[in-house]
Amino acid sequence: SGFEVPIIVDTPLARISTEPSRNIARNLPNYLQDKQVVLLVTEKEYAPEIREELSERVGRTYVINVTEKERGNLAKVELIE
């Protein structure tokens, strides 16, 4: 397309077992070199071994907590340092 925009991937590791997930996390930065990538992951997907593989390439990590479950449209976003 010629546009330089961030790549956003929602739940990329949801149904993938541990070792293939680690391989994806290890190689993803190589495939998307010089691109801004936003991964929307669950706690289970962002397990310690995945976090370790991505650690050198992660700029910021945020946690999104739903604060109103009845309507599900209110959330608090926190930067994890």
Task: Give a written overview of the molecule.
The strands form two sheets. This protein has a two-stranded parallel ribbon with strand order 1-2. It has a two-stranded antiparallel ribbon with strand order 3-4. The chain has 81 residues and is of the alpha+beta class. Helices cover 26% and strands 28% of the residues. Helix 1 (18-31) links the parallel strand 1 and strand 2. The mean pLDDT is 90. It has helices spanning 18-31, 48-54; strands at residues 7-10, 37-40, 61-68, 74-80.
Q: Oligomeric status of the shown chains?
A: single chain
Total helix count? 2
Regions with little confidence, pLDDT below 50 for 5+ residues: none
Q: Main beta sheet: strand number and arrangement? A: 2 strands, parallel
The neighbouring-strand order within the major sheet is 1-2
| Rg calculated over all Cα atoms | 14 Å
Helix content: 25-40%
N→C terminal distance: 35 Å
- Helix and strand element order: EHEHEE
Total strand segments: 4
Instruction: Return the average pLDDT rounded to an integer.
Output: 90
Strand content: 25-35%
Outline: globular
Broad structural category: alpha+beta
The gist of it:
The protein is α+β, with helices and mostly antiparallel strands and 81 residues long. The protein has two helices and four strands, in the order E-H-E-H-E-E. The protein is globular, with a radius of gyration of 14 Å.
